[in-house]
Design goal:
Helices cover 32% and strands 24% of the residues. The chain is of the alpha+beta class.
Length: 720
């Protein structure tokens, strides 16, 4: 019976040779086809020339089958390029690897065996019997049913193919560390150890505008292979000794293009480095006998050197001119990828600094807050426009704000900063949350108006925002949302759940689609916990958005009243978003404290001529009970008298007087049904007696106005 598998049941082992047959001449393809079957025609093997010709050197494909114990069950490494690679049936596959690669490759083999997901195109070294090594591109595939185990394809890439594959692989990440690591792995085809050292300014994403004089600051960005290095050797993340920058500094001062520098033997290396300390720090082992240093250069006048790539070899393997040409070509092709990663790192750092600047600093006496900001992965489209903020308002309330600006990068960051500052200014001026969102809506529409010249190629349409204002006296929260996900409320004596808010299209919607912003008011008694967040915290490909919010609700419900809020916030983020994602993760927790009942008093008075006198009597009795010193008491009584008299003169309906004892003073509030705004004019006098707001202004630390559904409240703060 013919043992050759049919096309319908061909295993990955057989399919590899067929799919990559274009890289093998006919003789090599026949040999591979014959050897794919252990009982195949042995004449096929004999067709492979014993002494390879230039054509036969193009035979680059090999395949190895492994059982579930990662032992070789059959192999096809007959192409001349694999000569000396001793793949013995029944032996462990890791016997073909350098010792320091065994843990990593074993982990990847078992991962494919367990998940079935292939691992494609890893640059790998194989050991030959004479001690030399062969660089291949290794792919790991699961064996096709009913067979078990793995198929490992090996491609000993030709020089030009390797250059193309390496450049393609290096440009896949915007993270500067991953870019350097990819370059180091690609350079391993020409040496035994490779390292990438970058100018510290490149590592941190700073601008490179001028050529520095003298030595420069270098940091190791990548080192291949990954092994246990001795103490004192420079590994990724370490700064190089100052003297190690000598060669690169000389290259940077050149006016022409920087060239590769080759030190051909161990004696010359030790002579150039000049001290045992530098030898221990830079030379990878006793067998290292030659090194090629290739600067990473950006074309320009003069050229800018970003760093240096180092390729180390053992004795007996001198660098040939053709190899140096290939090294310089690969490094030159990929230098712009390093610079792109540097620019991305710079933008990432700037946006991250802005976002951390916006994070809340402290909660205050009436509310406790804690926030966590976890930026997106470095190789994503860039840091996004997520932001949270909490700040005390001048009248004793606290504002909690969370927003998500569309897009990533500096455009989103600029819009984020503008909206955040505008929201804070409007809330501090006394506007209600829905009124603030109306202004933000207009701002986003203006920023997207191309005719205004402010768009600059970036659109913030569809950005979302949620604003909550906590009143520590009434223990209520007033909230408005523009397309944002609902906050989660955990009351002290009731079930937790998201706040019921009506969906809204978000900020900057077309005029015909714009809707008024709803106002939601709900009780938040002391001990309540409110969680505001952005979608990065609850979005998961495996869950719907409602299920993600339910997960957050369950997690927030586990926060106990005695838990420290900063630690609780970090724990929630690590539970719901344990790894960095493609979107930012933002969380703001607020625990309501409020004022004690004995620290506040409210009176409702008719708008009559004796209202001011009645208010003074009531307030004086309370100040006596609170044991307020005489000077402060006189100031408070005078402020209350002026505010009530002003309300009687210019408003209608009943007057509300409220006095609050705060941590550092007294807050006086007088509410009325009028809609006029008290102003401190040039003359400064609002009443016939010539006192008015000038008296209030002189006796208080701050005063202002906030608007209500029925009128306004004029408040003033007096220090104790």
């Amino acid at each position: 019976m013919d043992s050759t598998p049919s096309s319908s049941s061909a295993s990955p082992f057989d399919m590899v040779s067929s799919a990559l047959g274009q890289y093998m001449p006919r003789e090599g393809a026949a040999a591979a086809a014959g050897s794919a079957d252990p009982q195949g025609d042995s004449a096929a093997r004999r067709r492979v020339p014993a002494d390879p010709t230039p054509d036969s050197q193009e035979q680059i494909l090999g395949a190895v089958n492994l059982d579930r114990d990662l032992r070789i069950s059959r192999c096809n490494l007959d192409a001349p390029v694999f000569a000396g690679v001793e793949a013995v049936t029944g032996s462990p596959f890791v016997d073909l690897l350098p010792p320091w690669d065994v843990p990593t490759v074993t982990r990847r083999l078992r991962q494919v065996l367990e998940t079935g997901e292939p691992h494609v195109a890893r640059v790998q070294r194989l050991r030959r019997g004479d001690g030399s090594e062969l660089v291949v591109s290794m792919s790991i595939l699961a064996a096709a049913a009913p067979q078990e185990g793995l198929t490992v394809s090996l491609i000993a890439m030709a020089r030009r193919l390797h250059l193309y594959a390496a450049e393609t692989a290096i440009g896949t990440s915007l993270d500067i560390g991953e870019t350097a690591q990819s370059l180091a792995e690609s350079l391993l085809a020409w040496g035994d150890v490779t390292a990438i050292d970058l100018d510290f300014a490149v590592w941190t994403g700073e601008m490179l505008t001028e050529q520095p004089q003298g030595r420069i600051h270098l940091r190791r960005a990548a080192l291949v292979p990954d092994r246990a290095w001795p103490d004192g050797y420079v590994t990724p993340g370490d700064d190089l000794p100052g003297d190690a920058s000598r060669l690169l500094s000389q290259a940077r001062r050149r006016d022409d293009a920087a060239q590769a520098i080759v030190i051909p033997d161990r004696e010359a290396i030790e002579r150039v480095l000049g001290s045992p300390r530098l030898v221990r720090a830079l030379v990878p082992g006793d067998q290292a006998a030659a090194v090629a240093c290739i600067p990473l250069v950006l074309d320009g006048a003069p050229p800018v050197v970003l760093g240096v790539a180092e390729v180390w070899r053992r004795a007996g393997r001198p660098f040939e001119d053709s190899e140096l040409f290939d090294l310089q070509e690969l490094v030159a092709r990929t230098s712009h990828h390093v610079d792109l990663a540097r620019q991305h790192q710079r933008e990432h750092t700037q946006v991250l600094a802005l976002q951390r600047r916006l994070l809340p600093r402290s909660g205050g006496d009436t509310i406790e807050t804690a926030s966590v900001y976890q930026p997106a992965t470095p190789d994503s489209a860039g840091v996004g426009g997520d932001w949270v903020n909490s700040f005390p308002l001048p009248d004793g309330r606290t504002a909690l704000v969370v927003g998500d600006v569309v897009g990533h990068g500096l455009g989103a960051a600029a819009t984020m900063g503008q909206l955040s500052m505008e929201a804070r200014a409007l809330l501090s001026a006394g506007l209600a949350p829905d009124e603030v969102l109306e202004h933000l809506d207009e701002t986003v529409a203006l920023l997207d108006d191309a005719e205004s010249g402010l768009a600059a190629g970036y659109s913030a349409l569809g950005s979302t925002c949620c604003i909550a204002v906590y009143d520590p006296v009434s223990h209520r929260v007033t909230l408005s949302s523009a397309g944002h996900l609902p906050p989660v409320l955990v009351p002290p004596d009731g079930p937790a759940g998201p706040v019921a808010i009506r969906p809204h299209p978000g900020l900057g919607a077309e005029f015909a689609l714009r809707e008024p912003f709803d106002v939601h008011a709900f009780a938040a008694p002391p001990g309540s916990l409110l969680a505001l967040y952005t979608d990065g915290l609850v979005e998961d490909k495996a869950l719907s958005i409602d299920e993600g919010i339910d997960r957050l609700t369950d997690a927030v419900s586990t926060v106990h009243p005695w838990d420290a809020l900063p630690q609780a916030a970090r724990r929630l983020v690590s539970t719901l978003a344990p790894v960095h994602r493609r979107d930012d993760v933002t969380l703001l927790l607020a625990r309501m404290i409020g004022y004690r009942k004995g620290d506040t008093a409210t009176w409702r008075l008719p708008a009559r001529g004796d209202a001011a006198a009645r208010a003074r009597t009531l307030v004086a009795a309370l100040l006596e009970q609170w044991r307020i010193r005489d000077l402060t008491r006189d100031s408070v009584l005078l402020v209350v008298d002026e505010l009530v008299a002003n309300a009687v003169r210019f408003a209608e309906g009943p007057i509300t007087v409220r006095l609050i004892r705060t941590g550092d003073g007294l807050l006086c509030e007088v509410g009325d049904t009028g809609n006029g705004r008290p102003r401190l004019g040039q003359g400064g006098l609002l009443d016939d007696g010539g006192r008015g707001l000038h008296v209030v202004h002189g006796l208080t630390t701050r005063w202002g106005v906030r608007w209500t559904d029925t009128g306004k409240v004029v408040w003033a703060s007096v220090a104790r």
